[in-house]
Amino acid sequence: MTDIKKDVTILAIESSCDETAASVVVNGRKVLSNVISSQIDIHTLYGGVVPEIASRKHTERITQVIREGLEEAGKTLEDLDAIAVTYGPGLVGPLLIGVSAAKGLSFATGIPLIGVHHIEGHISANYIAEPTLEPPFACLVVSGGHTHLVLVRDYGEYEILGKTQDDAAGEAFDKVAREIGLGYPGGPKIDKASREGNPHAITFPRGKVAGSRYDFSFSGMKSAVLNYLNTSRMKGITVNVPDVAASFQQAVVDVLVSHAGEAIEQYGLKKFALAGGVAANNALRAGMRQMCEEKGAEFFCPPPILCTDNAAMIGSAAYFEYIKGNFSGLDLNAVPGLRLGQR
Ligand code: KG4
Ligand code: ZN
Protein backbone atom coordinates (compact mmCIF):
# COMPACT_ATOMS: atom_id res chain seq x y z
CA MET A 1 0.00 0.00 0.00
CA THR A 2 1.31 3.47 -0.94
CA ASP A 3 2.38 5.56 2.06
CA ILE A 4 0.06 8.60 1.99
CA LYS A 5 1.58 11.62 3.73
CA LYS A 6 -0.22 14.40 1.97
CA ASP A 7 -3.35 15.12 0.04
CA VAL A 8 -3.70 13.11 -3.15
CA THR A 9 -4.83 15.24 -6.09
CA ILE A 10 -6.10 13.36 -9.14
CA LEU A 11 -7.12 14.64 -12.56
CA ALA A 12 -9.81 12.31 -13.93
CA ILE A 13 -11.03 11.94 -17.49
CA GLU A 14 -14.27 10.28 -18.64
CA SER A 15 -15.35 9.69 -22.26
CA SER A 16 -16.99 6.26 -22.31
CA CYS A 17 -20.25 7.35 -23.98
CA ASP A 18 -21.53 10.81 -24.92
CA GLU A 19 -20.13 13.10 -22.21
CA THR A 20 -16.60 14.47 -22.39
CA ALA A 21 -15.66 15.14 -18.79
CA ALA A 22 -12.72 16.14 -16.63
CA SER A 23 -12.48 16.67 -12.90
CA VAL A 24 -9.94 17.27 -10.17
CA VAL A 25 -10.63 15.32 -6.98
CA VAL A 26 -8.69 15.41 -3.71
CA ASN A 27 -8.48 12.26 -1.54
CA GLY A 28 -11.31 10.63 -3.45
CA ARG A 29 -14.00 12.71 -1.74
CA LYS A 30 -13.44 16.39 -2.37
CA VAL A 31 -14.32 17.65 -5.85
CA LEU A 32 -12.45 20.78 -6.96
CA SER A 33 -13.90 20.83 -10.47
CA ASN A 34 -16.41 18.80 -12.44
CA VAL A 35 -16.54 19.83 -16.10
CA ILE A 36 -19.01 17.95 -18.32
CA SER A 37 -19.41 18.66 -22.02
CA SER A 38 -22.56 16.88 -23.14
CA GLN A 39 -23.24 15.76 -26.71
CA ILE A 40 -26.96 15.28 -26.11
CA ASP A 41 -28.02 17.92 -28.65
CA ILE A 42 -26.32 16.22 -31.58
CA HIS A 43 -27.36 12.65 -30.67
CA THR A 44 -30.95 13.81 -30.15
CA LEU A 45 -31.13 14.36 -33.92
CA TYR A 46 -30.60 10.60 -34.41
CA GLY A 47 -32.68 9.34 -31.48
CA GLY A 48 -29.69 7.84 -29.66
CA VAL A 49 -25.91 7.86 -29.35
CA VAL A 50 -24.12 7.44 -32.69
CA PRO A 51 -20.71 6.00 -31.69
CA GLU A 52 -18.79 7.47 -34.63
CA ILE A 53 -20.15 10.97 -33.98
CA ALA A 54 -19.47 10.57 -30.25
CA SER A 55 -15.81 9.71 -30.95
CA ARG A 56 -15.42 12.74 -33.20
CA LYS A 57 -17.00 15.09 -30.65
CA HIS A 58 -14.77 13.73 -27.87
CA THR A 59 -11.72 14.40 -30.05
CA GLU A 60 -12.86 17.98 -30.63
CA ARG A 61 -13.61 18.70 -26.97
CA ILE A 62 -11.22 16.69 -24.83
CA THR A 63 -8.25 19.06 -24.66
CA GLN A 64 -10.42 22.04 -23.79
CA VAL A 65 -12.41 20.08 -21.22
CA ILE A 66 -9.22 18.91 -19.47
CA ARG A 67 -7.89 22.47 -19.49
CA GLU A 68 -11.16 23.75 -17.98
CA GLY A 69 -11.08 20.99 -15.37
CA LEU A 70 -7.65 22.08 -14.20
CA GLU A 71 -8.43 25.81 -14.37
CA GLU A 72 -11.69 25.51 -12.45
CA ALA A 73 -9.84 23.58 -9.75
CA GLY A 74 -7.07 26.20 -9.66
CA LYS A 75 -4.50 23.46 -10.36
CA THR A 76 -1.76 22.86 -12.89
CA LEU A 77 -0.27 19.57 -14.06
CA GLU A 78 2.53 20.00 -11.47
CA ASP A 79 -0.03 19.73 -8.66
CA LEU A 80 -1.23 16.28 -9.72
CA ASP A 81 -0.40 12.96 -8.08
CA ALA A 82 -2.13 10.87 -10.73
CA ILE A 83 -4.09 11.01 -13.97
CA ALA A 84 -7.12 8.72 -14.02
CA VAL A 85 -9.19 7.65 -16.98
CA THR A 86 -12.15 5.38 -17.69
CA TYR A 87 -10.88 2.49 -19.82
CA GLY A 88 -14.07 0.40 -19.89
CA PRO A 89 -16.79 -0.61 -20.21
CA GLY A 90 -18.23 1.67 -22.87
CA LEU A 91 -18.04 2.46 -26.57
CA VAL A 92 -14.60 1.62 -27.91
CA GLY A 93 -14.06 4.77 -29.99
CA PRO A 94 -15.10 7.20 -27.24
CA LEU A 95 -13.10 5.25 -24.62
CA LEU A 96 -9.99 5.40 -26.80
CA ILE A 97 -10.12 9.20 -26.96
CA GLY A 98 -9.99 9.54 -23.16
CA VAL A 99 -7.42 6.78 -22.74
CA SER A 100 -5.16 8.30 -25.40
CA ALA A 101 -5.42 11.78 -23.86
CA ALA A 102 -4.61 10.43 -20.38
CA LYS A 103 -1.70 8.35 -21.66
CA GLY A 104 -0.34 11.30 -23.61
CA LEU A 105 -0.44 13.52 -20.52
CA SER A 106 1.07 10.82 -18.31
CA PHE A 107 3.87 10.15 -20.80
CA ALA A 108 4.66 13.85 -21.26
CA THR A 109 4.69 14.66 -17.53
CA GLY A 110 5.72 11.41 -15.85
CA ILE A 111 2.59 11.58 -13.65
CA PRO A 112 1.30 8.07 -12.84
CA LEU A 113 -1.67 6.74 -14.78
CA ILE A 114 -4.68 4.93 -13.28
CA GLY A 115 -7.22 3.12 -15.46
CA VAL A 116 -10.67 3.11 -13.86
CA HIS A 117 -13.70 0.86 -14.36
CA HIS A 118 -16.69 3.02 -15.31
CA ILE A 119 -19.13 1.19 -13.01
CA GLU A 120 -16.67 1.44 -10.11
CA GLY A 121 -16.77 5.15 -10.83
CA HIS A 122 -20.57 5.22 -10.60
CA ILE A 123 -20.47 3.39 -7.26
CA SER A 124 -17.74 5.74 -5.98
CA ALA A 125 -19.93 8.81 -6.64
CA ASN A 126 -21.46 7.84 -3.31
CA TYR A 127 -18.13 8.45 -1.53
CA ILE A 128 -18.22 12.04 -2.82
CA ALA A 129 -21.87 12.59 -1.93
CA GLU A 130 -21.41 11.15 1.56
CA PRO A 131 -17.82 11.60 2.78
CA THR A 132 -18.41 9.33 5.79
CA LEU A 133 -19.63 6.38 3.71
CA GLU A 134 -17.37 3.35 3.91
CA PRO A 135 -17.80 -0.25 2.75
CA PRO A 136 -19.38 -2.66 3.31
CA PHE A 137 -22.64 -1.62 1.68
CA ALA A 138 -24.86 -2.74 -1.18
CA CYS A 139 -25.26 -0.69 -4.33
CA LEU A 140 -27.75 -0.83 -7.17
CA VAL A 141 -26.02 0.45 -10.31
CA VAL A 142 -28.59 1.43 -12.92
CA SER A 143 -27.31 3.08 -16.08
CA GLY A 144 -27.81 3.06 -19.82
CA GLY A 145 -25.61 0.00 -20.20
CA HIS A 146 -25.80 -1.74 -16.81
CA THR A 147 -28.16 -2.93 -14.12
CA HIS A 148 -26.10 -4.53 -11.36
CA LEU A 149 -26.98 -5.25 -7.75
CA VAL A 150 -23.60 -5.31 -6.05
CA LEU A 151 -22.22 -5.98 -2.58
CA VAL A 152 -19.33 -3.56 -2.03
CA ARG A 153 -17.27 -5.63 0.40
CA ASP A 154 -14.37 -3.18 0.54
CA TYR A 155 -12.93 -0.40 -1.63
CA GLY A 156 -12.59 -1.98 -5.07
CA GLU A 157 -13.96 -5.36 -3.90
CA TYR A 158 -17.32 -6.35 -5.32
CA GLU A 159 -19.66 -9.28 -5.33
CA ILE A 160 -22.34 -9.14 -8.00
CA LEU A 161 -25.62 -10.43 -6.60
CA GLY A 162 -27.63 -9.91 -9.75
CA LYS A 163 -27.69 -8.22 -13.11
CA THR A 164 -29.94 -7.78 -16.07
CA GLN A 165 -30.33 -10.70 -18.41
CA ASP A 166 -31.38 -8.49 -21.31
CA ASP A 167 -31.85 -4.70 -21.48
CA ALA A 168 -30.34 -2.37 -18.90
CA ALA A 169 -32.88 -0.24 -17.02
CA GLY A 170 -31.72 2.96 -18.76
CA GLU A 171 -31.87 1.26 -22.15
CA ALA A 172 -35.50 0.30 -21.46
CA PHE A 173 -36.29 3.91 -20.45
CA ASP A 174 -34.67 5.16 -23.68
CA LYS A 175 -36.48 2.66 -25.93
CA VAL A 176 -39.91 3.23 -24.36
CA ALA A 177 -39.46 7.01 -24.52
CA ARG A 178 -38.70 6.76 -28.23
CA GLU A 179 -41.82 4.65 -28.85
CA ILE A 180 -44.14 7.03 -27.00
CA GLY A 181 -42.67 9.98 -28.88
CA LEU A 182 -40.75 11.61 -26.04
CA GLY A 183 -37.40 11.31 -27.81
CA TYR A 184 -33.85 11.08 -26.49
CA PRO A 185 -32.56 10.86 -23.79
CA GLY A 186 -35.53 8.86 -22.60
CA GLY A 187 -34.92 8.56 -18.86
CA PRO A 188 -35.21 12.25 -17.94
CA LYS A 189 -38.14 12.71 -20.35
CA ILE A 190 -40.10 9.79 -18.86
CA ASP A 191 -39.25 11.07 -15.37
CA LYS A 192 -40.71 14.49 -16.28
CA ALA A 193 -43.78 13.23 -18.21
CA SER A 194 -44.60 10.83 -15.34
CA ARG A 195 -45.25 13.73 -13.01
CA GLU A 196 -48.44 14.44 -15.00
CA GLY A 197 -49.44 10.77 -15.27
CA ASN A 198 -51.08 8.07 -13.17
CA PRO A 199 -48.57 5.31 -12.28
CA HIS A 200 -51.46 2.85 -11.75
CA ALA A 201 -53.31 3.60 -15.02
CA ILE A 202 -51.86 0.57 -16.86
CA THR A 203 -50.40 -2.57 -15.29
CA PHE A 204 -47.24 -3.61 -17.11
CA PRO A 205 -45.61 -6.92 -16.11
CA ARG A 206 -42.93 -6.85 -13.41
CA GLY A 207 -40.29 -8.95 -15.17
CA LYS A 208 -39.34 -12.08 -13.19
CA VAL A 209 -36.29 -14.07 -14.12
CA ALA A 210 -35.80 -17.80 -13.70
CA GLY A 211 -32.46 -18.54 -12.04
CA SER A 212 -30.82 -15.93 -9.87
CA ARG A 213 -33.13 -14.32 -7.35
CA TYR A 214 -31.50 -10.95 -7.96
CA ASP A 215 -31.28 -10.93 -11.77
CA PHE A 216 -33.41 -8.49 -13.72
CA SER A 217 -35.25 -8.53 -17.04
CA PHE A 218 -36.63 -5.40 -18.68
CA SER A 219 -37.23 -6.52 -22.25
CA GLY A 220 -40.62 -8.10 -21.42
CA MET A 221 -41.73 -4.90 -19.75
CA LYS A 222 -40.60 -2.88 -22.77
CA SER A 223 -42.42 -5.26 -25.16
CA ALA A 224 -45.59 -4.96 -23.07
CA VAL A 225 -45.49 -1.18 -23.55
CA LEU A 226 -45.02 -1.60 -27.31
CA ASN A 227 -47.92 -4.09 -27.44
CA TYR A 228 -50.10 -1.66 -25.50
CA LEU A 229 -49.24 1.14 -27.96
CA ASN A 230 -49.90 -1.05 -31.03
CA THR A 231 -53.19 -2.38 -29.66
CA SER A 232 -54.34 1.15 -28.82
CA ARG A 233 -53.43 2.37 -32.30
CA MET A 234 -55.28 -0.50 -33.96
CA LYS A 235 -58.35 0.21 -31.87
CA GLY A 236 -58.10 3.93 -32.63
CA ILE A 237 -57.65 4.76 -28.94
CA THR A 238 -55.60 7.88 -28.19
CA VAL A 239 -52.75 6.97 -25.86
CA ASN A 240 -52.31 9.06 -22.73
CA VAL A 241 -48.53 9.55 -22.87
CA PRO A 242 -48.02 10.68 -19.24
CA ASP A 243 -50.04 7.65 -18.02
CA VAL A 244 -47.95 5.23 -20.12
CA ALA A 245 -44.72 6.91 -18.95
CA ALA A 246 -45.76 6.85 -15.30
CA SER A 247 -47.02 3.26 -15.44
CA PHE A 248 -43.86 2.00 -17.15
CA GLN A 249 -41.67 3.92 -14.71
CA GLN A 250 -43.63 2.43 -11.80
CA ALA A 251 -43.07 -1.10 -13.13
CA VAL A 252 -39.31 -0.51 -13.38
CA VAL A 253 -39.15 1.09 -9.93
CA ASP A 254 -41.19 -1.75 -8.36
CA VAL A 255 -38.80 -4.40 -9.69
CA LEU A 256 -35.65 -2.49 -8.67
CA VAL A 257 -37.00 -1.70 -5.19
CA SER A 258 -38.26 -5.22 -4.54
CA HIS A 259 -34.92 -6.83 -5.53
CA ALA A 260 -33.04 -4.33 -3.36
CA GLY A 261 -35.40 -4.98 -0.45
CA GLU A 262 -34.90 -8.76 -0.70
CA ALA A 263 -31.11 -8.29 -0.68
CA ILE A 264 -31.28 -6.01 2.36
CA GLU A 265 -33.26 -8.68 4.21
CA GLN A 266 -31.27 -11.71 3.11
CA TYR A 267 -27.88 -10.16 3.80
CA GLY A 268 -28.94 -8.10 6.83
CA LEU A 269 -27.64 -4.95 5.13
CA LYS A 270 -27.40 -1.70 7.06
CA LYS A 271 -26.36 0.57 4.17
CA PHE A 272 -27.80 0.75 0.67
CA ALA A 273 -26.66 3.05 -2.18
CA LEU A 274 -27.91 3.94 -5.64
CA ALA A 275 -25.67 4.79 -8.59
CA GLY A 276 -25.74 5.38 -12.36
CA GLY A 277 -27.80 7.60 -14.65
CA VAL A 278 -31.15 6.01 -13.77
CA ALA A 279 -30.43 6.79 -10.09
CA ALA A 280 -31.30 10.38 -11.07
CA ASN A 281 -34.92 9.19 -11.45
CA ASN A 282 -37.18 10.86 -8.91
CA ALA A 283 -39.61 7.94 -8.47
CA LEU A 284 -36.73 5.48 -8.00
CA ARG A 285 -35.00 7.69 -5.44
CA ALA A 286 -38.25 8.14 -3.50
CA GLY A 287 -39.21 4.45 -3.69
CA MET A 288 -35.78 3.25 -2.64
CA ARG A 289 -35.55 5.76 0.21
CA GLN A 290 -38.94 4.69 1.58
CA MET A 291 -38.12 0.97 1.33
CA CYS A 292 -34.75 1.50 3.09
CA GLU A 293 -36.45 3.45 5.86
CA GLU A 294 -38.99 0.66 6.34
CA LYS A 295 -36.23 -1.96 6.51
CA GLY A 296 -33.98 0.10 8.79
CA ALA A 297 -31.15 0.51 6.26
CA GLU A 298 -29.37 3.83 5.74
CA PHE A 299 -29.97 5.10 2.20
CA PHE A 300 -27.37 6.86 0.04
CA CYS A 301 -27.84 8.48 -3.34
CA PRO A 302 -25.57 10.97 -5.13
CA PRO A 303 -27.10 14.21 -6.46
CA PRO A 304 -28.28 13.79 -10.10
CA ILE A 305 -25.17 15.50 -11.53
CA LEU A 306 -23.01 12.75 -9.94
CA CYS A 307 -25.41 9.98 -11.04
CA THR A 308 -25.13 10.57 -14.78
CA ASP A 309 -21.71 10.28 -16.42
CA ASN A 310 -19.04 12.57 -14.96
CA ALA A 311 -15.32 12.47 -14.25
CA ALA A 312 -15.49 13.29 -10.53
CA MET A 313 -16.70 9.73 -9.83
CA ILE A 314 -13.70 8.42 -11.80
CA GLY A 315 -11.36 10.57 -9.69
CA SER A 316 -12.92 9.13 -6.55
CA ALA A 317 -12.55 5.49 -7.65
CA ALA A 318 -8.99 6.22 -8.78
CA TYR A 319 -7.99 7.43 -5.32
CA PHE A 320 -8.73 4.02 -3.81
CA GLU A 321 -6.58 2.42 -6.53
CA TYR A 322 -3.85 4.97 -5.80
CA ILE A 323 -3.65 4.07 -2.12
CA LYS A 324 -3.41 0.39 -3.03
CA GLY A 325 -0.60 1.22 -5.48
CA ASN A 326 -2.64 0.00 -8.46
CA PHE A 327 -1.20 2.03 -11.33
CA SER A 328 -1.54 1.39 -15.06
CA GLY A 329 1.18 1.20 -17.66
CA LEU A 330 1.29 3.16 -20.88
CA ASP A 331 0.01 0.00 -22.54
CA LEU A 332 -3.41 0.72 -20.99
CA ASN A 333 -6.04 0.06 -23.63
CA ALA A 334 -9.77 0.63 -23.97
CA VAL A 335 -11.74 -2.49 -22.94
CA PRO A 336 -15.35 -2.02 -24.11
CA GLY A 337 -16.65 -5.17 -22.33
CA LEU A 338 -14.67 -4.79 -19.08
CA ARG A 339 -16.40 -6.68 -16.26
CA LEU A 340 -16.74 -5.35 -12.72
CA GLY A 341 -13.86 -6.63 -10.59
CA GLN A 342 -11.73 -7.34 -13.69
CA ARG A 343 -8.50 -5.34 -14.02
O1 KG4 B 1 -24.82 6.40 -16.22
P1 KG4 B 1 -25.24 7.07 -17.47
O2 KG4 B 1 -25.16 8.57 -17.56
O3 KG4 B 1 -24.50 6.49 -18.70
C1 KG4 B 1 -24.17 5.13 -18.79
O4 KG4 B 1 -23.18 4.71 -18.17
O5 KG4 B 1 -24.97 4.42 -19.45
O6 KG4 B 1 -26.75 6.61 -17.70
C2 KG4 B 1 -27.48 7.05 -18.80
C3 KG4 B 1 -28.87 6.46 -18.68
C4 KG4 B 1 -29.72 6.74 -19.90
O7 KG4 B 1 -30.36 5.55 -20.28
C5 KG4 B 1 -30.71 7.77 -19.40
O8 KG4 B 1 -31.96 7.70 -20.06
C6 KG4 B 1 -30.83 7.37 -17.93
O9 KG4 B 1 -29.53 7.04 -17.55
N1 KG4 B 1 -31.34 8.46 -17.10
C7 KG4 B 1 -32.51 8.40 -16.43
C8 KG4 B 1 -32.68 9.67 -15.81
N2 KG4 B 1 -31.59 10.44 -16.10
C9 KG4 B 1 -30.77 9.68 -16.90
N3 KG4 B 1 -33.41 7.41 -16.33
C10 KG4 B 1 -34.52 7.65 -15.61
N4 KG4 B 1 -34.76 8.85 -15.00
C11 KG4 B 1 -33.87 9.86 -15.07
N5 KG4 B 1 -34.14 11.03 -14.46
ZN1 ZN C 1 -22.29 5.68 -16.84
Description:
- This protein has 343 residues and is of the alpha/beta class.
- It folds into two domains: 9-125 and 307-322, ATPase, nucleotide binding domain (Nucleotidyltransferase, domain 5, 2-Layer Sandwich); 135-304, ATPase, nucleotide binding domain (Nucleotidyltransferase, domain 5, 2-Layer Sandwich).
- Helix content is 44%, strand content 19%.
- It has eleven helices and ten strands.
- The chain has helices at 40-44, 51-73, 92-109, 118-129, 169-179, 186-194, 219-234, 241-267, 282-295, 304-307, 312-324, and strands at 9-14, 19-26, 30-38, 82-88, 113-117, 137-142, 147-154, 157-163, 271-275, 298-300.
- It starts with 8 loop residues before the first strand and ends in a 19-residue tail after the last helix.
- It binds 5'-O-[(R)-(carboxyoxy)(hydroxy)phosphoryl]adenosine and zinc ion.
- Residues 118, 122, 143, 276-277, 309 line the site of zinc ion (ZN).
